[in-house]
Design a protein that fits this description.
Blueprint (H helix, E strand, L loop, with lengths): L6 E5 L3 H12 L3 E6 L11 E4 L1 H9 L10 E11 L6 E15 H11 L4 E4 L3 E6 L5 E5 L2 E5 L1 E4 L6 H6 L6 E13 L7 H7 L2 E7 L2 E9 L9 E9 L8 H12 L2 H9 L4 E11 L4 E2 L2 E3 L5 E2 L7 H18 L3 H32 L9 H12 L14
Parallel strand pairs: 1-2, 1-10, 2-6, 4-12, 10-17
Antiparallel strand pairs: 3-5, 4-5, 7-8, 8-9, 11-14, 11-15, 12-13, 13-14, 15-18, 16-17
Helix pairs in contact: 1-3, 1-8, 6-7, 8-9
Length: 394
């Protein structure tokens, strides 16, 4: 029997918050979302990859509209710079289907699906705690509201997480990720990379790190074939974190094949960001009446491509738990049993991938197809990842 008549508060209105709001609405809850930002968030995004099967399920269940643009890719191509020259050497290919999304378009689709909730924009939550009644209290500058369930979807600095795991902070990995998007005009003089990216996503290995490249929809109302080039480049910076564009351009000129270096080093960026890589996972994803979702419950290293994926799966799990449980407490315990170990698994997988691709990166120039397949199997060590479907995983 489904729990009914719930009041649910959601702290955070980003992808995780909107997805959890949709879950609550679909399960019949009265939902209120608190968003720190006063404006819309659709201009914030870079690139996101999700499994095709998850995208199909989200469309089928109404979380996403079928018209939301995506950029599917079916194959992963591994490249490095050829020894003694500036050309690219392809050393492996693997079937690895992804549905690439623009962060802003994904948020906009979820926000539309969550229109049935009350959204308080520009109202930061100052604290979350237990009310004397045993319900959850959400406090803002405008006052306090109590709820049967409060979802912490407030990111890696989550206030809600401090109720469940006081003092828990992310653990730094010791290296940095640079993210950016470039218009396809940056590839105009490089037809081979553009042709490759039309159906594949690329891992480009270099000494001490690697880069991931893929196309995403532009997201500004342009045509369905208009794309941006999204990338994430991982390396250990010298000393303190350098400026965003400057150091990544240096890496490109120093280590990339000439065409890829030209794209990254001299392209006009649509967006850039840079941050140290870190991870954490909460010991419990829920403790009634509180529940954690997305990065509030677990920050994984980006190698797993599971940030948004996990948040969306969290939402599907919450909806199922609310529909199949007789009380809010039972639903949250159901959620905790499923999502707590999954966050821990993803954090461990991210650490393993980080060690293998950055901290102890192989000699990419010496790799071939057989070596890559063996390296993937050894790195995963039996763990599953939708990015490595050819390496004996589900």
């Amino acid at each position: 029997m489904a729990v009914t008549g719930l009041r649910m508060g959601v702290v955070g209105g980003s992808i995780a918050g909107c997805a959890m709001a949709v879950a609550g609405i679909r399960a019949g809850a009265d939902v209120t979302v608190y968003e720190r930002s006063a404006g819309a968030l659709q201009d914030r995004g870079l690139g996101i990859a999700i499994p095709p099967a998850l995208h199909e399920r989200l469309v089928a269940t109404g979380y996403l509209g079928a018209a939301m643009p995506t950029a599917p890719a079916a194959t992963r191509v591994w490249l490095t710079r050829a020894p003694g020259g500036g050309s690219a050497r392809e050393f492996a290919r693997q079937p690895s289907a992804i549905t690439a999304c623009n962060w802003g378009l994904l948020w906009q689709a979820l926000r539309t699906a969550a229109a049935g909730a009350r959204h308080h924009r520009g109202r930061p939550v100052t604290s979350v705690g237990r009310a004397p009644s045993g319900r959850a209290a959400v406090r803002t500058a405008q006052g306090e509201e109590t709820y049967d369930v409060v979802v912490g979807a407030d990111g890696h600095r989550s206030l809600t997480r401090q109720v469940l795991a006081p003092g828990l902070r992310p653990t730094p990995a010791g290296y940095t990720v640079w993210r950016g998007t470039l218009p396809l005009s940056a590839l105009a003089d490089h037809p081979r990379p553009l042709e490759l990216l039309r159906g594949a996503w690329v891992t480009l290995g270099f000494p001490g790190g690697h880069g991931i490249f893929y196309l995403i929809p532009r997201g500004d109302g342009s045509g369905p074939d208009d794309r941006l080039l999204a990338y994430a480049i991982y390396a250990t910076p010298p000393g303190r974190t350098p400026d965003e564009a400057g150091y990544v351009r240096h890496l490109a000129e120093e280590h990339f094949p000439d065409a890829w270096a030209d794209i990254v080093a001299r392209g006009e960026y649509a967006a850039t960001t840079c941050h140290p890589v870190a991870d954490l996972h909460a010991p419990l994803a829920a403790d009634p009446p509180f529940l954690l979702a997305g990065d509030a419950a677990g920050v994984t290293r980006p190698h797993t491509a599971s940030g948004a994926v996990k948040a969306l799966q969290d939402a599907l799990c919450l909806e199922e738990a609310l529909r199949s449980s007789p009380s809010a407490a039972d639903a949250l315990r159901h959620y905790a049993r499923e999502r707590t170990p999954e966050a821990a698994r993803l954090v461990e997988l991210g650490r393993r991938l980080g060690r293998a691709q950055v901290e102890r990166a192989p000699d990419w120039a010496a790799m071939d197809q057989r070596a890559v397949d063996a390296w993937c199997r050894a790195t995963l060590a039996g763990a599953s990842s939708y990015l490595y479907t050819e390496a004996g995983t589900d």
